[in-house]
């Protein structure tokens, strides 16, 4: 009977999430807690509430508030004596902070985690997560090096193998034949740089690089080196800068670049480390607009669910959700579904059923299909830039990269 009850619960929730118009019946006004589940089911969240991705962390915390409300509303309708509770820890956007935050949650017996944001953070916690059988579901860690089978790391986002191809195609289609890449010297920056370099050179382009220390307090030396390399290539319409950065280091680089007569003459491109960042728009939106920076970020597929979520989010919090905000909302739902399907708070079982539970889930970011490494399967990246509207700087989408076609469709 308990197994049947759990099956009905999961089927009902999946139907509701998928927007099904079907009517579901549930026998009995009140149901007991499914065997093996505590009355409170904890999910940990590792968020960059401070540090170099803090504006994303703020939005993601809001998304988790909505997810917790929605999950518990559905469970309540089912009459189950179960509450899901999200426990948030600040990673400070650092590998050390992420590990400390995970250890704090682990000490509380929490075995299911959404986040962290950065690939360097995921790399730092991987050994602890695998050794202690803690399921980690990141909405945004994209480094190709993290695509590993049979571990406890899952990603609700596609690998940078695809973002690298999108960036290379974007620059090539914009007439760029020579690019200087300034990038973070961490697992994410190095991984994405390598993919971009390989693909851009396949297309026939030339690449030079400036790698910087992610913990450096300021980057004037690196920006001077960037300027020198651009000058060597020739500061013309065929030369560009690609910046692989987070928010704070991106602000540092852009603020220095605006004073450089060489760097202001060439095209600029960015990545998901800055795309849709409210901090970037508010603090250096004028610079981003003047340089014409085009940035790429994974694009959740369009649907009425996505639009409803975006409207609800903006109405409540006054800001637009970025694509990874959609991802973390869905990742939290999928963990909850996997727990209900497992029928107990057992991370080993959850890790086994999570890919299948995910494959049946259509959320605000669309279908969340995972490959054999536990990473999301996807094919589109939005191209976005900063524009001035009504006296403020905002991000505006201007195109979409379609990976299977290796083509960009520009907005009209």
List the helices and strands and how they pair.
Layout: H1 2-17, E1 40-47, H2 54-77, E2 83-90, H3 95-107, E3 112-114, H4 119-131, E4 135-138, E5 153-155, H5 160-173, E6 178-184, H6 187-203, E7 206-212, H7 220-233, E8 239-244, H8 247-257, E9 267-270, H9 278-291, E10 294-298, H10 304-317, H11 323-342, H12 347-359, E11 362-363, E12 366-367, E13 380-389, E14 392-402, E15 407-410
Parallel strand pairs: 1-2, 1-3, 3-4, 4-5, 6-7, 6-8, 8-9, 9-10
Antiparallel strand pairs: 10-13, 11-12, 13-14, 14-15
Helix pairs in contact: 1-11, 2-11, 3-4, 5-6, 8-9, 11-12
Features:
20% strand; 5-stranded parallel β-sheet; disordered N terminus; 412 residues; 8-stranded mixed β-sheet; Rossmann fold
Structural class, from helix and strand content?
Answer: alpha/beta
Strand line-up of the largest beta sheet = 7-6-8-9-10-13-14-15
CATH superfamily of the largest domain: Response regulator
CATH topology-level fold name of the largest domain: Rossmann fold
Order of helix and strand elements from N to C terminus:
HEHEHEHEEHEHEHEHEHEHHHEEEEE
Sum up the overall morphology in one term.
globular
Tally of DSSP helical segments: 12
- Distance linking N and C termini: 56 Å
Can you name the CATH architecture of the largest domain?
3-Layer(aba) Sandwich
Rg (C-alpha, Å):
22 Å
Number of E-type strands: 15
Could you name the ranges where pLDDT drops below 50 across 5 or more consecutive residues? Answer: 1-32
Q: In the CATH hierarchy, what is the class of the largest domain?
A: Alpha Beta
Strand content: 15-25%
